[in-house]
Amino acid sequence: MVKSTIFHGSLQEAFEKTEKAMASITQREEIEKGQLEMMELNHFRRHYQQQWGRPLSVALAGVDQRKSHNDIGPPTRMYERRSAWKNPAAAASNQEIANTNLRVSQGQLAGP
Which residues 6+ apart lie within 8 Å of 73 measured at CB? Predict the structure, then answer.
């Protein structure tokens, strides 16, 4: 009977140590996940800064401001830039058309 009590105590201690180890591993995974998410966010912020020439926080403040004025549409230039990312030739063509339309509306183009 003494043997079974000792064996039971050993199993209980092993179980508790295993539980603590699992909790520690889970906690470490959560910390690492948070650090990875922070690194991704910082990378995205740097990329946004390089691409648009302004901090992400400024852009988000502008979005919040538009929402408060019930205007949640994207800025016009965003579409122009996005099309340039996908197809630079099409973006240049669209810009030429826009410039031609502007000159026509201003009466700068001579027609036959």
Answer: 66
Q: Tell me, what DSSP letter sits at residue 75?
A: P
**Which amino acid makes up residue 76?**
T
pLDDT single digits (tens) 18-75: 999 999 999 999 999 999 999 999 999 999 999 989 888 888 888 777 777 665 555 5
61 by DSSP, 3-state: which?
helix
Cβ–Cβ under 8 Å, residues 82 and 94: no
Give the distance, in angstroms, between the CA of residue 47 and the centroid of all CA atoms in the same chain: 10
Inter-axis angle of helices 2-52 and 56-68, to 10 degrees? 80
∠ Cα 98 54 89 (to 5°): 30
Residue 2's φ and ψ, nearest 5 degrees, are -65, -40
pTM of the complete model: 0.45
For residues 87 and 51, give the distance between their C-alpha atoms in angstroms, rounded to a whole number.
16
Reading the block at residue 86, the tokens are: 């996908």
